């Protein structure tokens, strides 16, 4: 692990034991990764920071899907990322991010996040009705992995040796074609109710099953979506219905009784499909 630099954070108590999957044990190749994403990964590495491809980019490559985008996680603070790349812009208040621009392609860089109980001010983290409304407590890679939603999204492609760092058995879950929540599903859904929709979307997109404990609370917690800002629901709806798996997504929304929480008008007044179209 690279040594600390000013602004980099190390956990004093957290000790996870992730599995490191060597390059010859997984199919992900640099040839499959955007040249611009590689530029950012190597640029951060050269500047002395950790840098990993993470989330959907790694997951999709492992299931032989071409990623729509490539996201990077690092121990560099947003302001430090901007110092490394002149073509960088910082965005977001709820979730501070660095966007590195290469013409029409944007590489999103997120600083490792830590638990909210490490926040020193409300500007770093805040919640409302158990939901996270601000999320800017920075930490290290172990802490960041704990903050991710599903095991298959907590896989880190390490540019230093091209290995994949697996914290919660995501590599095995991909082999089993199952979606499994990290931590206690009920609590994680309450932290961010959009995860209810994300579970459906990813299962539909990847043709995965939803692991039993992960699936059980979904129908019961559907009403939490009623308090989610419409802009966030709109963004998730676009992903559900405009990414090539609309029919399967709709079937699963019905299966878990979520459609009623995505409607602008009561079902008895307008057909479900018309309401969904109106929202989208």
Describe the structure.
It is a single chain. The protein has 280 residues and is of the alpha+beta class. It folds into two domains: 19-174, Beta Polymerase, domain 2 (2-Layer Sandwich); 177-279, Orthogonal Bundle (cca-adding enzyme, domain 2), CATH 1.10.3090.10. 35% of the residues lie in helices and 18% in strands. The chain contains twelve helices and twelve strands. The strands form three sheets. Strands 1-10-9-2-3-6-5-4 form an eight-stranded mixed β-sheet. A two-stranded antiparallel ribbon has the order 7-8. The protein has a two-stranded parallel sheet with strand order 11-12. Helix 7 packs parallel to helix 10 and helix 7 (194-206) packs across helix 11 (246-255). It is globular. 37% of the residues are buried.
Provide the fold topology.
Elements (H helix, E strand, L loop, with lengths): L18 E3 L13 H12 L4 E4 L1 H7 L8 E4 L3 H7 L3 E4 L5 E6 L2 E7 L13 E4 L2 E5 L5 H7 L7 E4 L4 E4 L3 H7 L1 E2 L5 H7 L2 H13 L2 E2 L1 H4 L2 H4 L8 H12 L4 H10 L16 H8 L1
Parallel strand pairs: 3-6, 11-12
Antiparallel strand pairs: 1-10, 2-3, 2-9, 4-5, 5-6, 7-8, 9-10
Helix pairs in contact: 7-10, 7-11
């Amino acid at each position: 692990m690279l040594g600390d630099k000013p602004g980099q954070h190390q956990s004093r108590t957290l000790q996870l034991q992730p599995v490191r999957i060597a390059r010859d044990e997984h199919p992900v190749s640099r040839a499959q990764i955007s040249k611009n994403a590689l530029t950012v990964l190597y640029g951060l590495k050269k500047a002395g920071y950790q840098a990993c491809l993470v989330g959907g980019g790694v997951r999709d490559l492992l299931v032989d899907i071409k990623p729509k985008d490539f996201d990077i996680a690092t121990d560099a603070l947003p302001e430090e990322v901007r110092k490394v790349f002149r073509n960088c812009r910082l965005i977001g208040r709820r979730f501070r991010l660095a966007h590195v621009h290469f013409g029409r392609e944007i590489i999103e860089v997120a600083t490792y996040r830590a638990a909210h109980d490490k926040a020193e001010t409300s500007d770093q983290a805040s919640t409302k009705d158990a939901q996270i409304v601000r999320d800017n407590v920075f930490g290290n890679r172990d802490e960041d992995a704990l903050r991710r939603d599903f095991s298959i999204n907590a896989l880190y492609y390490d540019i230093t040796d091209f290995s994949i760092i697996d914290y919660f058995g995501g590599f095995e879950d991909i082999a089993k074609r199952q979606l499994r929540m990290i931590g206690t599903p009920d609590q994680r859904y309450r932290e961010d109710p959009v995860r209810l929709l994300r579970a459906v979307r990813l299962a539909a997109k990847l043709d995965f099953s939803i692991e039993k404990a992960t699936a059980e609370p979904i129908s019961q917690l559907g009403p939490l979506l009623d308090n989610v800002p419409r802009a966030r629901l709109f963004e998730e709806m676009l992903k559900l219905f405009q990414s090539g798996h609309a029919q399967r997504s709709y079937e699963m929304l019905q299966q878990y009784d979520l459609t009623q929480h995505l409607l602008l008008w009561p079902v008895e007044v307008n057909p479900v499909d018309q309401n969904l179209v109106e929202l989208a």
